[in-house]
Amino acid sequence: MTKSANTSPHEDRNADSSVSSIELEQQVFGDDPTQVRDTDHYTREYVGGFVDKWDDLIDWKKRSEGEGRFFIDQLKSRGVHSVLDAATGTGFHSARLVEEGFDTVSADGSPQMLAQAFSNGLAYGGHILRVVNADWRWLNRDVHGEFDAIICLGNSFTHLFSEHDRRKALAEFYAMLKHDGVLIIDQRNYDAVLDEGSGSNRTYYYCGDQVSAEPDHVDEGLARYKYTFPDGSEFFLNMYPLRKKYLRGLMRDVGFQKIDTFGDFQQTYTESEPDYFIHVAEKSYRESSELNDA
Ligand SMILES: C[S@@+](CC[C@H](N)C(=O)[O-])C[C@H]1O[C@@H](n2cnc3c(N)ncnc32)[C@H](O)[C@@H]1O
Question: Where in the chain are the domains?
Fold first, then answer.
């Protein structure tokens, strides 16, 4: 039987916005899910069954093989020691960073994802992750210290629905980095999704076997994806379809200098081909002639 996570408010006691996100067992999207375009809403999406299923979606072993040493090498080649994983999720990158000897702090705005991350850290190698429940918009208030690097991976930045919130989050990241720090943000290739049209057959499969992630609704202000699991359960995420050039421009505006953008971990690619872009943004001052603004 297919269990839809998209219940309407009168069917779902958790739809009451007074219910804390830590208590929510089902995703809440209300009567018109395509109208949910709100930065705060992520704490009502990463809940209950979806959190339990997240690790099926992104099968850790296959993900690790797919990424290889890309992030580790980016960090080590810059002499990074301390890292803030700003979008910890269930802890995949945090655990990997700890294993590689980085001094790691694991932040996330979803308490349910963080709880899962903590137990995953213990299960995979006995790591005690230093978890902090923090929203990016208030990062400097809730996480203390300066970091050589901040990572925000797994297409997480896409959860910010207003430019105001994107600028604020980037400014918070910038402020928490040391003078020569580096920010790594990845994003789905929404240019391809938007330009091929919402009716396109472009279907994305995550690493987990038989778990599919496909667009349910796409317009310039919303990319709503449906995640279907082998047991028939379905979950949704509402995200803002960031265009690559736009996000690079925002990073430049808040002060990042050299920004390298990789496509599916490769330096050279055609624009529509990669599923993901990865931006590696440095804070160290560069002459404007050295900036790569493409
Ligand atoms: C798509 S998951 C990715 C998790 C993990 N990085 C991965 O790759 O598996 C996005 C994560 O970003 C977090 N998140 C979204 N918006 C946030 C915000 N404004 N502040 C803090 N965390 C946020 C969510 O709670 C969720 O755990």
Answer: 9-290
Pocket of ligand 1 (CB under 6 A): 42, 46, 58, 87, 89, 92, 108-110, 113, 135-136, 153-156, 159
Structure tokens at 86: 């700003």
In CATH, what number does 9-290 get?
3.40.50.150
Read off the pTM.
0.90
Q: In what order do the strands lie in the sheet with 103-108?
A: 131-133, 103-108, 82-85, 147-152, 177-188, 276-282, 259-263
Mutate to test the pocket of ligand 1, among 21, 38, 42 (most ligand atoms within 8 A of CB): 42
Going by their DSSP bridges, the two strands 177-188 and 204-205 should be labelled as unpaired
pLDDT in tens, 35-86: 999 898 888 888 777 878 788 777 788 888 889 999 999 999 999 999 999 9
Instruction: Determine the distance separating the centroid of ligand 1 and the alpha carbon of 294, expressed in angstroms.
Output: 28
Question: How many angstroms does the Cα of residue 262 sit away from the middle of ligand 1?
Answer: 21
Q: Which two tokens stand for residue 63?
A: 């993900």
Q: What is the pLDDT of residues 183-241, one digit of tens each?
A: 999 999 999 999 986 444 444 445 566 778 888 999 999 999 998 888 888 899 999 99
C-alpha–C-alpha distance, residues 212 and 206, integer Å: 6
DSSP structure string for 196-255: T-TT----EE-SSTT-EEEEEEEETTEEEEEEE-TTS-EEEEEE----HHHHHHHHHHHT
